[in-house]
From TrEMBL:
TM annotation in the entry: 39-58, 70-93
Keywords of this entry: Membrane, Transmembrane, Transmembrane helix
Record domain YdbS-like PH: where: 96-184
Domain of life: Bacteria
Region Disordered, annotated ranges: 1-20
Pfam families: bPH_2 (PF03703)
Protein name per the record: PH domain-containing protein
Length: 210
């Protein structure tokens, strides 16, 4: 199910070469801006510091005048800019360390900036896949696991559907052209699960010629 990814990858994003008959259909990673906005709440953080600046300015403007009030309130904007820059740096590192792979047999997620782990999710263990699409084309595809297999929320974060703590859903987070990727994933899973399984059976008695 998972693999500690300290060893050299024979193929980027996969802990080992795919077996015969399995082909890579798509590989991608989160968009930095989209990941910072959705996973790290960049807009909310920026808005909070702007609100603090406005509050400080409003309390001082009558006493100090607009220029002095803006100067005294400006540390909130400076601190907010530093925090937002830090969040963007974290999002960039997370995005660069991540590589999602869709093959004809599974979804693989290489995640983790400090401790890199690869999760292999065969289509047979996926109960459903839900797409959350944004206006700019970025989106998140959340995967619901079937059976007893469960992945930890903290282990997967931020590559997990937000706030589903009790039943974590690993997710291809903030990927570009998400609608096309979702269709590709749906087609691949359906083809894999409806493909007839061929097994070996003992040969039966030969039919006698009449």
């Amino acid at each position: 199910m998972s693999h500690d990814d300290f060893a050299h990858e024979p193929i980027p994003g996969l802990p080992e070469r795919p077996p015969n008959g399995e082909h890579i259909l798509w590989q991608g990673r989160p968009g930095t801006w989209a990941l910072a906005r959705e996973a790290l709440a960049l807009h909310w953080v920026a808005g909070w510091f702007v609100l603090l600046f406005g509050w400080r300015f409003a309390t001082l403007v009558d006493l100090q005048g607009p220029v002095e009030a803006a100067r005294l309130a400006s540390p909130f904007l400076i601190l907010g800019g530093a925090v937002c820059a830090l969040l963007l740096a974290i999002a960039w590192v997370q995005a660069r360390a991540t590589l999602y792979t869709i093959t004809t047999a599974r979804v693989a997620m290489r995640i983790g900036a400090a401790l890199t782990v690869t999760f292999n999710l065969p289509y047979a263990q996926l109960a459903s896949a839900d797409l959350q699409l944004r206006r700019d084309g970025h989106g998140t595809i959340a995967l619901e696991m079937s059976g007893p297999t469960r992945l930890g929320y903290l282990i997967c974060w931020p590559h997990v559907r937000p706030w589903h703590l009790r039943h974590p859903k690993p997710a291809l987070r903030c990927i570009p052209d998400a609608a096309r990727v979702a269709r590709l994933l749906s087609d691949a899973a359906q083809a894999r699960l409806t493909r007839p399984r061929l097994g070996r059976t003992a040969p039966g008695p030969a039919l006698a010629a009449e």
